[in-house]
Task: structure prediction
Amino acid sequence: MTSITRRTMSMTSEKLQDIVLQALEFGQNGKTRACNEQLRQIYSSLQTNPLLLWESSQVSQLGKSLILMLHLDLIDDEEKGIGLALLAYLFLSKGIQKEEQMPETDLCEMFRIRKDRIILLKSFDDFFVDSLQDFYYANEKAKDRETYNEQRKAVLSRLPLMQFSDIYDIEQDYPNLRDDEFLLETANFIEMEDEITSENLKEAQLLHKILFKHTLQRLKEGKINY
Result:
């Protein structure tokens, strides 16, 4: 039994929270080797219990650590990378839910989580196409390659709108998006490429809700490979 396996077997939510925060701090400070060591422990923990931090206030930070894992190409397997992106989305979305349910929302924390979810959807948009296609065209399964490709293209076009729905929600608290360069550039690009309507925003918000439920169900059924 390896030392990593032993550590994972005895992993508690408190230990994992500490490891997640250390990984993010090392990553922010450019300490790649130390960061990778922490990220590998996080990855091992996910194999044992992916929902260990589900009810924790740090669940969104776990999602952020998975974005870091993806950016550093720590897992060299596309299918597992897709699975990690879905888990990151799940944990960030759970964090948003938890903040929304608080008696008083922490606006700075909500800003951070929504921005992280935008970064995830923008950086790894193609990783979400299969999941969105599964339920978006649940009753219209493609019978040929041309239809399949058309469906994927249609689904991919919804992802910028899902990003923009988070930007829209941030704007309700911060009309200038806190002068965040990434968010301003992303918003401008999407507005140039797509017509933003109230109907589009409603659809995007609905897609967020369905993707969350769909991904959580697939995780519980053991259908996500990571």
